[in-house]
UniProtKB/TrEMBL annotation:
GO terms for cellular component: membrane. This is Protein HflK. HflC and HflK could encode or regulate a protease. HflC and HflK may interact to form a multimeric complex. InterPro entries: Band7/mec-2_domain (IPR050710), Band_7 (IPR001107), Band_7/SPFH_dom_sf (IPR036013), HflK (IPR010201), Membrane_HflK_N (IPR020980). GO terms for biological process: proteolysis. GO terms for molecular function: peptidase activity. PANTHER family: MODULATOR OF FTSH PROTEASE HFLK, STOMATIN-LIKE PROTEIN 2, MITOCHONDRIAL. Residues 72-257 form the Band domain. Residues 249-276 form a coiled coil. Residues 1-33, 354-380 are annotated as: Disordered. Keywords: Coiled coil, Hydrolase, Membrane, Protease, Transmembrane, Transmembrane helix. SUPFAM superfamilies: Band 7/SPFH domain.
């Protein structure tokens, strides 16, 4: 017997499966779309008694279309964006982040560039996906990184440029309408600026301590070039990632760098020793000169004093020669005989009372010699 004649297949009548009952509805049934449309039409007919194509209905439809058209002019600008409003394709204003409004399409349209986002452009290297490491790896691009220096050497330079759109109204408009490929423009201008700065520099400062100067010079040159293009781009920073000689000669360059480092170390040590010895020698020479100047001043002062004393004595001598001569004689004898032992003997006329030998020095008490300027003398 065919199963279709049983009104439900070989397992009985009705929508049943092989195990008895059929599928049971679970949860609330979804609303019927036709029922919803029918109810909406009924309500619309109640609002417009004359029908859709009556005067009131057409007016209401037109008003609803105008309202929806006017409401379509509202737009939101995110925090890192700037809104550029175009009226029939012409830039009329730039709006800040937040909720804004423009005349609906096709009168005005809006563009939302990422004006505050910092973009990164790499020159001399590129990032590629590495499935083995489950990440991204850096691959060198020699046609971009190999550059000729001012002293005709080749250097391998990898660097990145950080840039963003100028946030003012003129900068955002210039970025949108003056250049077609901003990323490619920045990359080409950056590579050209780096080659120009490297071409004016020597290889030794490039490899050692002139990175900051080169980065600053490249940034200024890129900014001037982009401003001349009217690109509306602001260069925030230039970072040199790698500065090395070419791979074929890098070992020889490292040997040269090591030799120069040793030379600088020896020069610094010699300069340190010179800075220590030279001041000491200068100090000793200055001391000797000061001692000589002191002795000179002392000798000259003593000579002047003695000559002045002699002249004073001579002036007094001319006034009274006898008195002055006697005074000089007495002063001289006093100075000569002042420290000597003296015995005065008055023998009288008969010479009585004196033995033939009398140890006079032993009879007189010994005196300690008096120190003085004159140590010569005699005894009488």
């Amino acid at each position: 017997m065919p199963w279709k004649n049983q009104g439900g297949g070989p397992w009985g009548s009705g929508p049943k499966g092989p195990w008895g009952s059929g599928p049971q509805p679970v949860g609330p049934r979804p609303p019927d779309l036709e029922d919803l449309l029918r109810r909406g039409q009924d309500r619309l007919q109640q609002i417009m008694p004359g029908g859709y194509f009556s005067g009131i209905g057409i007016t209401l439809i037109i008003l609803l279309i105008i309202v929806f058209w006017l409401l379509s002019g509202f737009f939101r600008v995110q925090s890192e964006e700037r809104g550029v409003v175009l009226r029939f394709g012409k830039h009329v204003r730039t709006v800040d982040p937040g909720l804004n409004y423009h005349l609906p399409y096709p009168i005005e349209t809006v563009l939302l560039p990422k004006a505050l986002r910092v973009n990164t452009t790499s020159i001399g290297m590129t990032l590629i996906d590495d499935p083995a490491r489950r990440g991204r790896s850096i691959r060198d691009v020699p046609e971009e990184s190999l550059m000729l220096t001012g002293d005709e050497n080749i250097v391998d330079v990898d660097f990145t440029v950080l840039w963003r759109i100028k946030p003012d109204a003129g900068g955002v408009g210039a970025f949108l309408f003056n250049i077609q490929n901003p990323e490619g423009t920045v990359k080409a201008v950056s590579e050209s600026a780096m080659r120009e700065v490297i071409g004016r520099s020597q290889i030794q400062p490039i490899l050692t301590g002139a990175r900051n100067t080169i980065e600053q010079g490249v940034q200024e040159l890129i900014q001037r070039t982009l401003d001349s293009y009217g690109a509306g781009i602001l260069i925030t920073q230039v970072q040199m990632q790698k500065v090395d000689p070419p791979a074929q000669v890098i070992d020889a360059f490292r040997d040269v760098q090591a030799a120069r480092a040793n030379l600088e170390q020896l020069q610094n040590e010699a300069q340190t020793y010179a800075n220590q010895v030279v001041p000491q020698a200068r100090g000793r020479a200055a001391k000797i000169q000061q001692d000589a100047e002191g002795y000179k001043e002392q000798a000259v002062a003593e000579a002047k004093g003695q000559s002045a004393r002699f002249l004073n004595v001579y002036e007094e001598y001319k006034k009274a020669p006898d008195v002055t001569r006697e005074r000089i004689y007495l002063e001289t004898m006093e100075r000569v005989l002042g420290g000597a032992e003296k015995l005065v003997y008055d023998g009288g006329s008969g010479g009585q009372g004196v033995v033939p030998y009398l140890p006079l020095p032993e009879l007189s008490p010994r005196r300690q010699p008096t120190p003085g300027p004159q140590s010569s003398g005699g005894s009488r």
